[in-house]
User: What shape does this take?
Amino acid sequence: MHKILPLSEPMLARDRQRWRLAFGGMVVAMVIFGANFVVSRHAILNGLSPHDLLALRFGTAGLILLPTFLSGGLSTCGGVGWGRGATLAIMSGLPMSYLLLTGLTYAPAAHGATIGPGLVTVIGIVGGVILFATALTRQLVLGIGAVLFGLACLAIAGSTHTNPTILLGDLCFLGVGLIWGCYPLLIQLWRVDALKATAIVSVLSMVYLPFYALFYFRGFDVAPWWVIVLHGINQGVLNVILGLWIWSWAARVLGPAVVGRFPPMIPVIGTLLGIPVLGEIPGGLQIAGIGLIIGGLFVASWRRSAPAALEPHQAEIPDDADGEPQRQR
Assistant: This one.
């Protein structure tokens, strides 16, 4: 036993450092995603269209990550197979991004930052129960119920608003949550490398660029060049390469029990940032709905931490090298 302990301590220290890095990375990713609702909404309100932002998003990310995609093999779609690659691209690529940016055309940024992430967390919790044998507790049920009730409040507020297009935007955000929520589950289930998954999503979504060039391109004078460059960096580098890469990697390190704690940060950041940047002050029913969703997310996603003796080597990793399911928290 004395010969094993010196070897296990460095492993535990390395795992603990890796866990902390993933935890900090998820915080950064949530800030990026939360701010993106406000930044994208600001861009749309000031001349850029959802089509422009889609082209900037995947044109930038796709070109940067094209070598990574090709290194995995074109015939095997970066090494994961075309079926799985197309599924990942649908859930976190062009279709999801189109719904998100279209929704921001019609509805406030706070709605997008609340509805989509709310459903992502609910789907993550349900998926964790089904795929990873996570225990379904009263806390989870109460949290999910609060989220659904909050979504209903936003739906009522949108349907009774003087601007009927808000409900259309909320429906787009509903679609975002439904398809985006399955992405981290599949990353864990299929054990896809984070950077590889990001490259696949970005490159496959470049299929949109020819359609943009033929039907939606309005020239480069629709906005100052520096605005186009900044939104290209925000959409392609921050939200796709950095944000999606961090989320994909951290989801494998932290596991569904811990990853579910982070999406509540997105509506908080998006709602608070939208007030000074966009002047979007929610109404009474909207505040109630947003508050219910945020509170429900925290209740549903928060789990009691594992004992210190188990962290992080045993409690953090969704599946070990032999395919054993993660220990329950």
